[in-house]
């Protein structure tokens, strides 16, 4: 399987994340991608290639122009306001407040953020843009006939909504890729999100549409980030009713329980008969992930990769989360090797 990767991911190198009332080194850091690409090379998964540049249009096909314009200038506007640290919101348009978009950068950060742990720093937009191009290049490989590809995206994307960033995500790479499939002739695309956290951004983008089936298996939002979306009763709206499914699972969920949810999800994907499958591949379901509470072991990732392969669909893997960095390469590549099957 081909891996699409660029060193430009390292332009996203924030110094601070707000965690437990302290500013800490971000969990979502450049070494994550380095461990994954090293493992890809170590096992000889396949060629590693640079992304092509498809420009902004495929990003604007799923995100609001005003939101993307904001991401481009947020860091320079923050510096121009005279602040010394990295950019983070401190105020939101909360219940019963005005929806006017403020002028001041502090107000605009609150308007476009769904969470405040994710600092905006120098190079953040450039890395987020490159990450989306990595996803688009993977999609192109599938359109050109590959049965699978691995878009080693960083920063991740599945929390980024139509007009909101947060949860380490700025541009929704999986959604950008799905829309690109549709814009190149596909009728239906399925997105399976196996990251520990609910893919609220992806759900938001396709909530009212029937041309993208979105299914997420994740920590119950009653107990886990993003807390305000991802419940089982969210099944889509309007034309999208019946094309969104969530499998929230409780603390300490092991692979047997997780795999039973996956089995239901795979059955729903099979019935939908999509032209392509996109897997939002987060490996923060691992038993020793520092910010998550599922109990998958490294060999379980291989097993479920094979489960997904049994669908026999052209499949694009898009990297999302995973924060036990020492094992992130093994776990992510185990899914891909499980998908490919024994040599
Ligand atoms: C991004 B991705 C945990 C706080 C979690 C943000 C998590 C973002 C996860 N106590 N804060 O889905 O892996
Ligand atoms: Zn996650």
Automatic annotation (TrEMBL):
Keywords associated with the record: Hydrolase, Metal-binding, Zinc
SUPFAM superfamilies membership: Arginase/deacetylase
Record-linked InterPro entries: HDACs, His_deacetylse_dom, His_deacetylse_dom_sf, Ureohydrolase_dom_sf
Cofactor: Zn(2+)
The Histone deacetylase domain, residue ranges: 28-336
Signal peptide bounds: none
The keyword Zinc is assigned to this record: yes
Pfam families given in the database record: Hist_deacetyl
Gene3D superfamilies the record matches: Histone deacetylase domain
Family: Belongs to the histone deacetylase family.
Protein name, entry field: Histone deacetylase family protein
């Amino acid at each position: 399987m081909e891996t699409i990767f660029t060193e430009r991911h390292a332009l996203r190198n924030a110094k601070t994340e707000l965690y437990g009332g302290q500013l800490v080194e971000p969990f979502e850091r450049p070494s994550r991608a380095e461990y994954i690409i090293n493992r890809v090379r170590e096992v000889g998964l396949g060629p590693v290639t640079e992304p092509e540049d498809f420009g902004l249009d495929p990003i604007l096909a799923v995100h609001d122009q005003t939101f993307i314009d904001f991401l481009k200038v947020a860091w320079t506007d923050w510096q121009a306001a005279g602040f010394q640290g990295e950019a983070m919101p401190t105020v939101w348009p909360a219940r019963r407040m005005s929806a006017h978009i403020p002028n001041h950068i502090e107000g605009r950060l609150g308007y476009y953020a769904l969470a405040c742990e994710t600092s905006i720093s120098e190079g953040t937009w450039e890395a987020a843009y490159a990450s989306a191009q990595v996803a688009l290049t993977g999609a192109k490989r599938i359109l050109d006939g590959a049965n699978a590809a691995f878009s080693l995206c960083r920063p991740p994307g599945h929390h980024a909504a139509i007009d909101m960033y947060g949860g380490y995500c700025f541009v929704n790479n999986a959604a950008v890729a799905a829309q690109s499939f549709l814009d190149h002739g596909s009728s239906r695309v399925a997105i399976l999100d196996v990251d520990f956290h609910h893919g609220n951004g992806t759900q938001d983008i396709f909530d009212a549409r029937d041309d993208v089936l979105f299914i997420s298996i994740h920590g119950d939002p009653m107990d886990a980030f993003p807390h305000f979306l991802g419940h089982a009763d969210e099944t889509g709206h309007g034309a999208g009713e019946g094309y969104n499914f969530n499998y929230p699972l409780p603390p300490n969920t092991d692979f047997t329980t997780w795999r039973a949810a996956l089995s239901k999800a795979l059955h729903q994907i099979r019935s939908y008969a999509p032209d392509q499958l996109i897997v939002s591949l987060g490996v923060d379901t691992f038993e020793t992930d520092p910010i998550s509470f599922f109990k998958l072991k490294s060999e379980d990732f291989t097993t479920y990769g094979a489960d997904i392969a049994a669908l026999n669909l052209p499949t694009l893997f898009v990297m999302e989360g995973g924060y036990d960095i020492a094992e992130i390469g093994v776990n992510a590549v185990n899914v891909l090797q499980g998908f490919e099957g024994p040599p």
